[in-house]
Amino acid sequence: MIRLIVLVAAVLGLGATAQAQDYPNRIIKFMQGFPPGGNVDIIARLLGNEMSKSLGQSIIVEAKPGQAGALAAETVARSPADGYTLVVLPSTHPTQAALAKNLRYRAVEDFDWVSTFTFYPFLIVVRKDSRFQTLRQLIEEARAKPGVLTYGSAGVGSTLHMTVELLGNTANVKFQHVPYRGEAPSITGLLTGDTDFVAATAGPIGDRIRSGELRGLGVSSRARWPGLTEVPTIEEAGFPGFEVISWTGLAGPAGMPKPVLERLNTEVRKAVATPEVKSKLEAMGGEARATSSADMRTLVERQLATWSKLAREAHISLD
């Protein structure tokens, strides 16, 4: 029996090795869960185009919008674990899992994590004529007038929404949430005076801050962000340990052969390090950085725990 087990293990190992050596032998699909032309779609196409060069196979990007990326994630979680159907995910993946009660997949266990592509922080932003010069001033007024100050976000359950709720929970203050259908409309709402402040991603808002059209009160990274070094961190405003870093990365169905997963991780690292790709990712306001499969899984687990705790304490749900 022992000899039989050893023989079967050896055969399976040889099969996996052969599969990795033969991989890929047909077109690879990158799915993403947002409308074409958005950040996730652009990043998926940028990385897919570069990775296809050394993989020797075309990579097509298919958009499957809906439920903040959950439809695409579910489709990939149910796909064959052969490395040919993958998903480009943003950091809304653990946010959705923390808030939605009816997801038909497990946010961590149903995926094999390949690598991240890029990281970026969020900023708390006000109009240039706002009475708030610092984040501390905004927090003090919110403490004196609970639920009066309004903020816009890209919608209920978005990472932008949850970042402000985490700030409020940390500072023990309450803001009034005004959800919009996307980040761009929320910024328009700020400019027209419909809200007091917004949470925004570094890329879309950076030029407006640098031009003086808007004022950044705090950035959610632990260190000041390159290109926006005049904006202090939220931690500097008196909230030790506060950090929210968004990301975009690649995953596949759980159970992919280890050699295939390792090959994909290697290809992502090569693509992210390519000067042209790296500069384009950084031009979008992010830090181009690949990780190991294990590190990406740990990142998702950690963020899922953070948002689940906040959802319980702040009574936030999508259902």
Radius of gyration computed on alpha carbons: 21 Å
Quote the average pLDDT.
Answer: 92
Shape: globular
Q: Using the coordinates above, name the CATH class of the largest domain.
A: Alpha Beta
Tell me the total number of β-strands: 10
- Span between N and C termini? 51 Å
Biggest pleated sheet: 10 strands, mixed
Total helices: the number is 11
Please tell me the CATH architecture of the largest domain by its name. Answer: 3-Layer(aba) Sandwich
Structural class: alpha/beta
How much helical structure, as a percent, in the residues?
Answer: 40-55%
The CATH superfamily name of the largest domain is: Bordetella uptake gene, domain 1
Looking at the structure, the CATH topology of the largest domain is: D-Maltodextrin-Binding Protein, domain 2
Q: Helix and strand string, N-terminal first?
A: HEHEHEHEHEHEHEHEEHHEH
* Low-confidence regions: none
